[in-house]
Amino acid sequence: MKTVTLLRHAKSGWDEPVSRDFDRPLNAKGKRAAQRVGEYLRHEHLEFDHIVASPAVRVVETLEHVATGLGETIAPAWDKRVYLASAESLLDVIQEADDSYSHLLIAGHNPGLEDLIMMLVPEGAEGTARYEVEEKFPTASIAEISLPVDHWEDVRANKGALARFVRPRDLDPALGPDGN
Description:
The structure is a single chain. This protein is of the alpha/beta class and 180 residues long. It is built from 6 helices and 6 strands, in the order E-H-E-H-E-H-E-H-H-E-E-H. It has a 6-stranded mixed beta sheet with strand order 3-2-4-1-5-6, sandwiched between helices. Helix 3 (87-95) crosses helix 4 (112-120). The mean pLDDT is 94. InterPro entries: His_Pase_superF_clade-1, His_PPase_superfam.
């Protein structure tokens, strides 16, 4: 059994002018949400064997604040392919993972992450979490997918189970769409 957890970057700031989308930083709410997600990961004792992340500023900052909440250093493998990647490109990244890893964390962007969840978790899967993700995979949300494979290269569409879907607003209502 392999597990992949997907983390969408936290809310970024549009107020600060940047020359490239790649350089857009987090806003204050995004920083709080990312730290809260890190606290949740610590509380749930979630550990990852390997982290692959987009090198975009908002993902780098998200992981820095997650690390603060987690209380430990995060040292991802920065992979430019994850920046604004499609579901298919993200699947390639997963399938190329070393089999010595049992739990991957992929930190990146929508719509690729949401599309990957829809690709891996079959429609009609048990529970309502898939439908909630389909409605919206908000910033700083995590989705954990269990995959019944021994080798990452065997990960295929419609073979996963959504084991966990957590939004920042689930952890703190002030981090929801109506919060400040």
